[in-house]
From TrEMBL:
Segments forming domain Rab-GAP TBC: 51-237
Source domain of life: Eukaryota
Protein name, UniProt field: Rab-GTPase-TBC domain-containing protein
Recorded coiled-coil stretches: none
């Protein structure tokens, strides 16, 4: 399906409120879309105003997400309703029932129910077509924004690519990758604002979970603001969202210093809610300055981020746009294996502690057996290397 100019026939128009004519920016965005010039689109997304209108976003967002031009053909038979039910559909229903609280303003209950049905269908289509993805609470907030901005034919393909290639870390069966992203925020603050970092040192960065997990769609209450923020979040690499929250924290510096550092619950309460009013343009500029001055590769916690995480597989936004859905599933499977390995490691550490004072060789033999079972590897294969390390560690612990 080729993008045509017909949906945007009247781009040369004067604003009657005395503000400058914005048609030049609209034309610039559409020209960048026509040429698929991601650099120009990124620049336009970052500068004040972003893509300006939803009719222009209908062209820009699909380009940034790398939608193929044969979108309609890719959604041929079977229809999503014929596919097996996804395991998370009951939770989807519960969340959709709570959707559209702030926007748009529906004329009546029938209109609201129709839009909830559309949102439910959008989410279920993506989950049934890509059943490896796990639904998370707040996903419906993200999908709601794309539903309200994009035309129907582009919604499911756009949400699918966003899910597999840009927010994949959140669609795993564990929150561990999401928490790993949050660990970057203290590192950013330590590099950019040591005094503020020290003041917040007793506060875990979980205050940023809702914002980063939902691309801020759960916390921003106007469609205009969240659409504007999506311009830059879709144009930039996924790690930009983390820097955005670090910029939000720094914007509240005075308020935070007015709260004693030995009251982490109060600090957490302040940080878990976005400031009002929300000066998006200043925050976007501040986040860009932070990522330029302190790129993630220089942050200590970056080493703990999985190589299969979207933060690394989509570190280059242009490369992410060119990735396929098959790439997304491959990275997902790799992360899934890593999570299973980490779970086994935790079990091993628990057993190490349990047998920290074993009865000599018998205790060592027991532990070796436990390790072999947990790792599902033959004991003989671990006669050297890891087994020797475990044995030596066990001897030290038993002294």
């Amino acid at each position: 399906m080729e993008y045509q100019d017909e949906p945007f026939p009247a781009l040369i128009e004067k604003r009657v409120d005395g503000e400058p004519d914005i048609s030049a920016r609209e034309r610039a965005v559409l020209e960048a879309c026509r040429r698929k010039n991601l650099g120009d689109l990124r620049m336009l997304a970052e500068t004040p105003g972003g893509f300006v209108t939803d009719r222009v976003r209908q062209r820009a967002w699909p380009v940034l997400l790398g939608l193929p031009t044969d979108t309609e053909a890719s959604l041929d038979a079977p229809t999503w309703k014929e596919l097996p039910r996804h395991r998370d559909e009951d939770q989807v229903k519960l969340d959709v029932n709570r959707a559209f609280i702030y926007y748009p303003q529906h004329q009546n209950d029938a209109e609201l129910e129709r839009q909830k049905d559309e949102l439910s269908s959008l989410i279920l289509e993506v989950l049934r077509r890509y059943p490896y993805l796990c639904y998370f609470q707040g996903y419906h907030d993200i999908c709601q924004v794309l539903l309200l901005v994009l035309p129907p034919v582009l919604r499911a393909p756009a949400v699918a690519r966003l899910s597999a290639l840009r927010i994949r870390d959140f669609m795993l069966p564990s929150l561990t990758p999401a928490i790993s992203q949050l660990r970057l925020i203290p590192d950013i603050l330590r590099a950019a604002d040591p005094a503020l970092y020290r003041h917040l040192s007793s506060t875990e960065p979980f205050f940023a979970l809702s914002g980063t997990l939902t691309m801020y769609a759960h916390d921003i209450t106007t469609l205009g603001e969240i659409s504007r923020l999506f311009d830059v979040l879709l144009a930039r690499e996924p790690v930009f969202s983390v820097y955005m929250f670090a910029a939000i924290v720094r914007s509240r510096r005075d308020e935070l210093f007015d709260t004693p550092r030995d009251e982490p619950e109060m600090l957490h309460s302040i940080l878990s809610k976005l400031p009002r009013p929300l000066d998006l343009e200043s925050l976007i500029a501040a986040a860009m300055a932070l990522i330029d001055a302190h790129p993630p590769e220089k942050l200590q916690s970056w080493r703990s981020i999985s190589k299969a995480s979207v933060l690394k597989t989509a570190r280059d936004a242009d490369r992410c746009t060119a990735q396929s859905m098959a790439d997304g599933e491959r990275f997902f499977r790799r992360q899934l294996r890593e999570l299973a390995w980490l779970e086994r490691q935790d079990k091993i550490l628990a057993e190490l502690w349990r047998y920290r004072r074993p009865a000599g060789a018998v205790g060592i033999a027991v532990l070796v057996g436990v390790v072999a079972v947990l790792l599902r590897r033959p004991g003989a294969a671990w006669a050297g290397g890891p087994l020797a390390y475990v044995s030596a560690l066990l001897v030290r612990l038993g002294r």
